[in-house]
């Protein structure tokens, strides 16, 4: 244990790794391949290139996986609905697309076993004739997968379906079909691909944007050819040239921006579509069973999946503008909630306030510039080599990133005569997967004194690299756990993960809450509470000034507020200027009087507002103690004008929103209600953090 403690006190070099990569970019005379874009496809291209022994560089203007690749449904799948279309329309191209995706699904589960796993998904059936119809389709899905079928699908009776998914609506249910697809931690998977490329010798740099493409005149043809890019370090503002024989455009929704840098006359090929997802508490779904709604009210498909002990529901599919900061729309959130209500038992109240996080991802649908019909959406992906030699890969899906990268490099090698041989990425284990085993977490508990839940999380997030994270964990000062201070009490993320994140090229607090950990995607309120500690740890490691720390904190809060759905919480509370109850209740003034009296039990001095002092005084009377910082956080949730106090009107708005289900499990509402009930009894009150909706 003494050895472990001494290791945990070691600090990492601040930005030496990042600077080393930037220096390699600037000092290398010429790369074989320069990949622009650090999403799944771009990182896959870099890994494919470097493992062909090509000198490879990758630049990303934001963070790795900061765009669409971190905002997916978290599924690794072949596409059940695509197979249905292939069969119904006798479409061979669609069939081959599903077959390729199923092959890639199997490969991805093999090369990153710590980040991915098979997931059973239930398809509930409410009409007898649909049972054989869906069964035949799902069995065909198994057959297409062949030897790479994860597990055979099966039919369930009504009683067995309800036993496995007790939240399901039982009225008119005739049975269910269960099939298997894969699930993964998308942002961590993307990062693992990029880190694996770096381990094999690629120079990768996030927060490095392309200002313009470099060109030179080809001596043989007299035409201009792309020969690299002028890049800018987003953090420092420094600009430099990166020269390369081949430049690959893997920028997802921003495909057309780089294509127009190449040739201003190029027309747009990207037709972006927004997909919104929401996260609700884990009790909405079983721990290891997803749900598929194959026919929503408007014809879309909705998935309802357990993920990281929460439940993901989505997605939508609506045209959108291209932006680096997509915002989930309230109408999309409510659409998903309504569809969820259609499939869950009436006993389960689906509340708007149970939405813990919400995000929008932009799916880069594309038209093929090589096709005669340039207006027709390409169902798969396209690889295009321009007259100047710019190689563009666009479209496709997360699951097929590797085969897309292979096809892209094949085209690049042929167009630019790069050599290097065939792709070697099938079966190439990703970062963290080499030393992982299902029982690895037990060693973390035994060797380092970590909590069981924390150890399982570290093993499932970092694989064999979890030991490096554990070594950085600080002593808790408690009997148990010995090391590993949590960032927030209800999630297994620990402080040493912030320190390790810098080693994984994290440059901002947003990188940590959104992509190194997934806290921002799971619960925005918890992420908001963890931010000061995250900024403090990163500030010490990266030598941030007070001004820089403030900027980081504000930027991360803005990210949570706009892009992760935190704004919705305030809107639920401020939608009306006064409490709104149903007609009979308003007439009798029963609830308003009850809530007002409850408020005045805390506001003894009739100030019209309450502070932490008022709440603490009442809690002392009933022998309850709450940490002062925790109490500040509880009041801050309701303090809409951020003046350090909660006015009567704010409290009434809160209770109105709670009653309507727009806000669920408010800590202040629960605290004041239980305190009121305990005042006469003078008994202890247990105040547990609820999870807090947005």
TrEMBL record:
Record-linked Pfam families: DAO, DAO_C, EF-hand_7
UniProt KW keywords: Calcium, FAD, Flavoprotein, Metal-binding, Mitochondrion, Oxidoreductase, Repeat, Transit peptide
Record keyword Calcium present: yes
GO MF annotation terms: calcium ion binding; glycerol-3-phosphate dehydrogenase (quinone) activity
Record-level GO BP terms: glycerol-3-phosphate metabolic process
Cofactor: FAD
Cellular localization per UniProt: Mitochondrion
InterPro entries named in the record: DAO_C, DAO_C_sf, EF-hand-dom_pair, EF_Hand_1_Ca_BS, EF_hand_dom, FAD-dep_OxRdtase, FAD/NAD-bd_sf, G3P_DH_FAD-dep
GO cellular component: mitochondrion
Domain EF-hand: 590-625, 626-661
Domain of life (superkingdom): Eukaryota
Pathway membership: Polyol metabolism; glycerol degradation
Main location: mitochondrion
Reactions that this protein is recorded to catalyse: a quinone + sn-glycerol 3-phosphate = dihydroxyacetone phosphate + a quinol
UniProt EC number: 1.1.5.3
Entry-linked PANTHER family: GLYCEROL-3-PHOSPHATE DEHYDROGENASE, GLYCEROL-3-PHOSPHATE DEHYDROGENASE, MITOCHONDRIAL
Function: Calcium-responsive mitochondrial glycerol-3-phosphate dehydrogenase which seems to be a key component of the pancreatic beta-cell glucose-sensing device.
Recorded family membership: Belongs to the FAD-dependent glycerol-3-phosphate dehydrogenase family.
Protein name as catalogued: Glycerol-3-phosphate dehydrogenase, mitochondrial
Organism (species): Oncorhynchus kisutch (Coho salmon)
